[in-house]
C-alpha cells in the first residue's frame, strides 16, 4: 500500500501559515509596524491605498538589514530574537515567530529596500507569491522600506472575504492607534490615498493620547499610577460622566504590547462600580509593566492574548489603583465662590443652644359659654367676626332636606336606568376597551377574540424605525431649531464616520451648522430628539457603525433608522399614561409590518379566550 503522508511544498505551507498570520490588510500593517519598532526606528511612516488592498507600505529609519539578513528574513521560522526555547519566556520585543514576512510574501507582491547605517549601498528585493523575482544593490537611505501590493492576488477566495474599504480602513486605524499609543516617543505619520490622516510627533503619554483622539480628551483623563513588586501600573482612565455606549477607547498594554483581556476589563469595571449608568463603558489607557518570565504571550496567533502567572493578584491591584484614582478625583474639595455669607450662622451664635419656648394656658376659658370673654393674650377690636347670638334656631338648617333627598332618589333611579340601557347597547364595547400596563413593560389591550399583549419598547422601535426610514427616503424630515447651537466633540475616526453619514443624518432632521476636525456644531434636531439626547443618539449610531458603513444607500439609511429607533424608543420600566398606551398601540398597528421590531423580534402576542378557558379547565 503506497504512503499517503507527504511534506507540503514551502509555498503551500507559507500560504497556510498566512491564514493564521494575515487575515486582512490590518494584519500586514500590524506586523510591519512592529518590525519597524523592533528595528529601533524613531520615525515611522505608514502609507496605504484602497484600505490596504492595493498597497501597504511602512518606511522607517531603523538599523536596517545586511544583504544576508534581507534574504533570510523571508524564510519560514527565521527570526533574530529566538535562539532556544527558554527565550520565549524572556521576550522584550514584538515579532519573534519568524512567520510574518514569509506569510506576507506568499500571498502578495512584496518590495523591500533596506540599508544599514555603516554600509554605503543597500539591498532591493522583489518577491511575488514566495518567488524571488530580483535582488539588486541600490542607493538607499538608512532604514527599511517594506511595500506590500495586491494582497491575496493568488488566493481569490480570501480576497473575496475582505469587507468594504470602509471596514478594512477602520481595522487599519485600530492597529495603527495601538502601536502609536504603545510608543509615544516615536514619530508616526499615516497617509491614506495621498491624504495625511495622523501626524504624531514624539510626546508624553498624555499628549499622545490627546493627539490620537481629540483635543477634548485631555479634560476627561484621570491619571493612574501604582508601583508594586508584581506589576507597575501607569496610564489614564476617563471620568465617569464621559463614559460612552461603545467600547472603542479601551486599551491594555503589557510591556508595550497591546492585549485584550476580559479578566482585566472586569477589574476596571469593578473599580467603576456605582459610578456608571447602565450600559455605559468607560474609556481607559492602562500600561502594565511585569517581569517577562511571569507572562506567556505565545498562546494566540495574533499575540493579543497573554497568560499571567498570578492573575488574581493583578486583578486586585488594578481594581484598587483605579478606584483610588477615581476617589481622589471625586473627593477633591470644591471652592464655591457663589455662596452667600449672609446665610451662615454668626460666629458668636454657633455654640449657643436654642431657647425653649414657654406655653401659657388659660384654664378659665370656656368656648361654650354665652358670654364673650376677651382673650387676655390676643385681642382684636377691629375684627369683623362676630359670634352667633343664639343657637336655638338650629332646626332651620334642616328645612327642605326631605324634599331634596326625594329628588336625589329619583335622580339616582333615572341614572341607573340610563346606565343599564347603555350597557345593553353594542357600542359599549368601544367604551370598555381600555389598555393596561403591566410591570411598566407590557401593554394589554382587549379585543373581540381575547386580548393582545404588546412589548412597549419593541413596538415603539417599530414605529420610530418606519418614521425615520420614510423621512430619510422622502427627504421630508422636519427639524426643531435650537436657540443655542449644540457643540459635540468626537475623536478623529468618529468624525470621519459622521462626515460620511452627514447627508443621511441631514435627511433625518439634523442640521449641521459647522463641521470641524474634532467637533460638530448642530443647530437643529429631529422633532422627537431632545437636546440632551442628541449626543446619545450619535454615540449609539457610531457604535452600531463601528464595523463599517454599508456600501449601498438603502442599507446605510436602514442602519441609521434602526440605530436611532433603538436610542429613542421608550425603555422598559417607563410608566405610560392611558393616552400614551393607546397612541402606542394605535401607532403600532398603523405600521406596514407591526408584527416584528426592526431587529426581527415579535412586538406583540395574542391570547384568545379559548386559550384562557383551557388554562382554567386544568
Automatic annotation (TrEMBL):
Pfam families: DNA_mis_repair (PF01119), HATPase_c_3 (PF13589), MutL_C (PF08676). Gene3D superfamilies: 3.30.230.10, Histidine kinase-like ATPase, C-terminal domain, MutL, C-terminal domain, dimerisation subdomain, MutL, C-terminal domain, regulatory subdomain. GO terms for biological process: mismatch repair. GO terms for molecular function: ATP binding; ATP hydrolysis activity; ATP-dependent DNA damage sensor activity; endonuclease activity; mismatched DNA binding. Residues 209-327 form the DNA mismatch repair protein S5 domain. Keywords: DNA damage, DNA repair, Endonuclease, Hydrolase, Nuclease. The keyword Transferase does not apply. One of its GO terms (cellular component) is mismatch repair complex. The keyword DNA repair applies. Residues 434-576 form the MutL C-terminal dimerisation domain. It comes from the Bacteria. SUPFAM superfamilies: ATPase domain of HSP90 chaperone/DNA topoisomerase II/histidine kinase, DNA mismatch repair protein MutL, Ribosomal protein S5 domain 2-like. InterPro entries: DNA_mismatch_repair_CS, DNA_mismatch_repair_MutL, DNA_mismatch_S5_2-like, HATPase_C_sf, MutL/Mlh/PMS, MutL/Mlh/Pms-like, MutL_C, MutL_C_dimsub. NCBIfam families: mutl. This protein is involved in the repair of mismatches in DNA. It is required for dam-dependent methyl-directed DNA mismatch repair. May act as a 'molecular matchmaker', a protein that promotes the formation of a stable complex between two or more DNA-binding proteins in an ATP-dependent manner without itself being part of a final effector complex. Belongs to the DNA mismatch repair MutL/HexB family. This is DNA mismatch repair protein MutL. It comes from Flavobacterium franklandianum.
Amino acid at each position: 500500500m503506497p504512503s499517503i503522508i507527504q511534506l507540503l511544498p514551502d509555498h503551500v505551507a507559507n500560504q497556510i501559515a498566512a491564514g493564521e498570520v494575515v487575515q486582512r490588510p490590518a494584519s500586514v500593517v500590524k506586523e510591519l509596524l512592529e518590525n519597524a519598532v523592533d528595528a529601533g526606528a524613531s520615525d515611522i511612516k505608514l502609507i496605504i491605498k484602497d484600505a490596504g488592498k492595493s498597497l501597504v507600505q511602512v518606511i522607517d529609519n531603523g538599523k536596517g538589514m545586511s544583504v544576508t539578513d534581507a534574504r533570510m528574513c523571508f524564510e519560514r521560522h527565521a527570526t533574530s530574537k529566538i535562539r532556544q526555547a527558554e527565550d520565549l519566556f524572556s521576550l522584550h520585543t514584538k515579532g519573534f515567530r519568524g512567520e510574518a514576512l514569509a506569510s506576507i510574501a506568499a500571498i502578495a507582491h512584496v518590495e523591500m529596500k533596506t540599508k544599514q547605517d555603516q554600509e554605503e549601498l543597500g539591498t532591493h528585493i522583489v518577491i511575488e507569491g514566495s518567488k524571488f523575482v530580483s535582488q539588486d544593490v541600490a542607493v538607499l537611505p538608512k532604514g527599511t522600506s517594506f511595500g506590500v501590493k495586491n494582497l491575496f492576488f493568488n488566493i481569490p477566495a480570501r480576497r473575496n472575504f475582505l469587507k468594504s474599504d470602509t471596514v478594512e480602513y477602520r481595522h487599519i486605524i485600530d492597529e495603527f492607534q495601538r502601536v502609536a499609543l504603545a510608543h509615544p516617543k516615536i514619530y508616526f505619520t499615516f497617509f491614506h490615498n495621498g491624504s495625511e490622516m495622523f501626524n504624531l510627533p514624539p510626546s508624553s503619554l498624555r499628549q499622545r493620547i490627546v493627539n490620537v483622539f481629540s483635543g477634548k480628551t485631555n479634560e476627561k483623563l484621570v491619571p493612574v499610577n501604582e508601583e508594586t513588586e508584581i506589576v507597575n501600573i501607569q496610564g489614564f482612565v476617563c471620568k465617569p460622566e464621559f463614559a460612552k455606549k461603545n467600547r472603542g477607547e479601551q486599551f491594555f498594554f503589557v510591556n508595550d504590547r497591546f492585549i485584550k483581556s476580559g479578566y482585566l476589563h472586569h477589574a476596571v469595571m469593578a473599580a467603576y462600580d456605582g459610578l456608571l449608568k447602565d450600559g455605559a463603558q468607560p474609556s481607559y489607557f492602562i500600561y502594565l509593566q511585569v517581569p517577562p518570565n511571569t507572562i506567556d504571550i505565545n498562546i494566540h496567533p495574533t499575540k493579543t492574548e497573554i497568560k499571567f502567572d498570578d492573575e488574581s493578584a493583578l486583578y486586585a491591584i488594578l481594581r484598587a489603583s483605579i478606584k483610588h484614582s477615581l476617589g481622589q478625583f471625586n473627593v477633591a474639595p470644591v471652592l464655591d465662590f457663589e455662596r452667600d455669607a449672609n446665610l451662615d450662622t454668626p460666629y458668636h451664635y454657633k455654640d449657643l443652644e436654642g431657647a425653649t419656648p414657654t406655653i401659657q394656658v388659660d384654664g378659665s376659658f370656656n368656648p361654650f359659654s354665652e358670654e364673650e370673654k376677651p382673650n387676655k393674650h390676643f385681642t382684636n377690636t377691629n375684627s369683623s367676626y362676630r359670634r352667633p347670638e343664639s343657637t336655638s334656631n338650629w332646626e332651620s338648617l334642616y328645612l327642605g332636606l326631605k324634599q331634596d333627598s326625594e329628588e336625589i332618589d329619583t335622580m339616582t333611579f333615572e341614572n341607573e336606568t340610563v346606565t343599564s340601557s347603555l350597557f345593553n347597547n353594542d357600542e359599549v364595547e368601544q367604551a370598555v376597551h381600555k389598555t393596561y400596563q403591566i410591570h411598566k413593560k407590557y401593554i394589554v389591550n382587549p379585543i373581540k377574540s381575547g386580548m393582545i399583549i404588546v412589548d412597549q419598547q419593541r413596538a415603539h422601535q417599530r414605529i420610530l424605525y418606519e418614521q425615520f426610514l420614510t423621512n430619510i427616503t422622502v427627504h421630508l424630515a422636519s427639524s426643531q431649531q435650537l436657540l443655542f447651537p449644540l457643540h459635540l466633540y468626537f475623536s478623529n475616526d468618529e468624525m470621519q464616520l459622521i462626515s460620511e453619514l452627514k447627508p443621511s443624518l441631514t435627511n433625518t432632521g439634523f442640521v449641521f451648522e459647522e463641521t470641524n476636525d474634532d467637533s460638530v456644531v448642530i443647530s437643529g434636531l429631529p422633532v422627537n430628539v431632545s437636546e440632551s439626547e442628541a449626543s446619545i443618539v450619535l454615540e449609539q449610531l457610531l457604535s452600531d457603525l463601528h464595523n463599517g458603513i454599508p456600501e449601498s444607500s438603502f442599507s446605510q439609511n436602514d442602519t441609521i433608522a434602526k440605530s436611532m429607533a433603538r436610542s429613542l424608543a421608550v425603555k422598559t420600566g417607563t410608566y405610560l399614561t392611558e393616552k400614551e398606551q393607546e397612541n402606542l398601540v394605535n401607532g403600532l398597528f398603523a405600521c406596514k409590518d407591526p408584527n416584528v421590531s426592526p431587529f426581527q423580534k415579535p412586538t406583540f402576542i395574542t391570547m384568545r379566550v379559548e386559550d384562557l378557558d383551557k388554562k382554567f379547565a386544568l
